[in-house]
Structures are given as C-alpha cells and as structure tokens.
Amino acid sequence: MNIGVIGAGTMGIGIAQVAATNGCKVWVYDANAKQVETATVGLEKTLTRLVDKQKISSEKMVEILSNISIATELKDFKDCELVIEAIIENKEIKTKVFTELENHVSESCVIASNTSSISITSLGAELQKPERFIGIHFFNPAPLMPLVEIIPSLITEKSLAEKMYNLMKDWGKVPVIAKDIPGFIVNRIARPYYGEALRIVEENIATPEQVDEAMRTVGNFKMGPFELMDLIGVDVNFSVTTTVYKDYFYDPKYKPSLLQQRMSEAKLHGRKTGKGFYDYGEGALKPIAKKNQTLYDDIFHRIIAMLINEAVEAKRLGIASDEDIELAMQKGVNYPKGLLAWGKELDYELISDILENLYAEYQEERYRQSPLLKKL
Length: 376
Description:
By secondary structure, the chain is α/β, with parallel strands linked by helices. The chain has helices at about 10-20, 35-50, 60-65, 90-100, 120-125, 160-170, 185-190, 190-200, 210-215, 225-230, 235-245, 260-265, 295-315, 320-330, 340-345, 350-360, and strands at about 1-5, 25-30, 70, 80-85, 110-115, 135-140, 145-150, 175. The chain is built from 16 helices and eight strands. The model has no long low-confidence stretch (mean pLDDT about 95).
C-alpha cells in the first residue's frame, strides 16, 4: 500500500517505521520541514542500533529507509490509499488539515486520525466524505507497543473498521475495535490509575514513590503511576484527562488534578524536561520509599477498585467486547492482567465494598459504582 503520515514527531515517524517495515511505501509530511529531516535522521540511528543488536538485518534497514519518502506538501499524498494524521491534540488544527487533505487525495483514500482522546465523529464531520474517516490510535512508541485502537465514527462506512483491523493485523499489531467515546478504551479505563494516585498524594496519604512501589510490588505493575506520567509527559497526561473530563460533561469520575495542572504550568513535564515527579538530571538519585505494607495494600486496593469499576462500566456500555477490553489494557498500557479477570479473581464483592467505603468517606460521585458491578 501507499501510506501517508502527517506529522513527523515521535508518533508520526514511529507509524511510518511500522508501515515501511511491512513493505508499504510511505510519505511523511510535517508543516515544519526541518522536523521531517530530524525525524528521518533519528530513525536511521534507531535502525542502526537494531542492526547492531541483531534485531534486524542491514538489508532490512536499507529496505525500511528506502520505503520512506519526505512529502513537501499535502499534494504529495495524491497516490496514497491511507493517510494517518499524528499531529498536535487540537481539534481545530486537525480539522483544518483534514479538509485541506481531502482536496488532494483520491475518492477512495482512507483518512485516519491517531488522536488519543478527541471524538472521531467530530473530527470527520467537516469532510465532504466523512464515511471514509476513522480513528487508528497507536500507542507510543508505535514500533514497540502492539496495541492499536480502531475507532469508527457514527458515520464511518460499515466495513472500514474491519478493513483497518485486518491491515493492522497484517502489520503485526494487536488491533481492538472501540466505540467513539471520550478516551476510547485505554484512555478512559486507565484514568483512575493516574487520578486516584494523584489524589492519594494530594491528601498526604502517601508520597509518589510509595504509591509507585505499592503498585509495582502489590499489583505487579511494570511502572507506578508517577513513573508512567513522567514517561508519558505530565502535560500530555493532564491534557488527555482534561479532554475526557470535558467530553463527559464534567463527570466527577474524570476530574483532573490540581497538582498535575500546577506541574504542567511549571513545565515539570517528566523525563522530556529533566524533572517531573522525579528528578532525571545527571547524578540525581531517586528517593527511596518509606516502606509500609499496610499502606501499600490500601493504595493498591483503592486504585485497582477504581480501575476494575471503569472496566466493568465499559463492558456495561458495550464500548468494546470483553476480549478487546482485556487485550487493550494488557497490550496498550502493559497491565499485568485483564481488569475483568482481575475483578473476578479479587472478588467483585470486595471491589464493591471498597467503592462503597470510599463513597461514604468522600460523598463524591467520583466513587459511584457501575450498575453492573453488583450483578457480577
């Protein structure tokens, strides 16, 4: 296939690498021409490291690079069968790009967005042919993370989701199909992993390093929520939470954290700025958590109860199939188990009791249970 990628940031060049690795001819465009050059140089270095580690052959590296071309304008996508946008999470900017793009591609070209949280229906609404528009959400880094969420809009042509699902499988990915709801599967269900952790710290119940250690040791998560926010970008995580909160008409369940807002404003964005919840400067030492097993157990149960409740609510609303809900959380954010299975293992009655106690303590809708939870 001929594939177009709009945006040459980390995600855009990662998607280009995935497509080119699977034999597609790829054109990459960015409004900042220098960014494309920087990205392709970076990709060459990445591929060289893979060759050095014997992950790919030098011949494969040459093939991947030869499959990628720089597009200098959107007209260069005229022969593309699929164009994937991976630019800033701003609805107005994305919409403007899509409406211009539609003037340059063929009638049959599929137009897709890699958005992590913006409504696919709203993004495609201004197009002349909104039925050819769909969400194809990769996870960062795209070449390594297996999950891809396929999100048809209310007016996407019925067979298109299955076609993109099969294409992603051909590319070696693990695709899941989600309804066009705020946050889709992963970014909706995962919100309490960050939100409840932030609240625990804001209330001085525990420190970030204690929360992280609790989730790693008790829950067997690969990364604690604060480590993960620093990796994703504190600003990016805050932006996604804010979008989901607004798009759910300010549902208290998704209320953003004031601490996270202040850190975003202070440009304490995590690894990319050298400092977030942890210091990544040269010679900086990570603080050692003051171990408290009872506290760790309480932290784990509080956060896992909120996560399982979100997964159960997603099941109730038919946001995705049970299988896709489980796959999405394990393959998209590396959860050690599927949350529905985890709820069954811990006992849904225990999860219900934890949420009832939190609701009684805080008197907040944030802790309301899914109507399905008590029936499981």
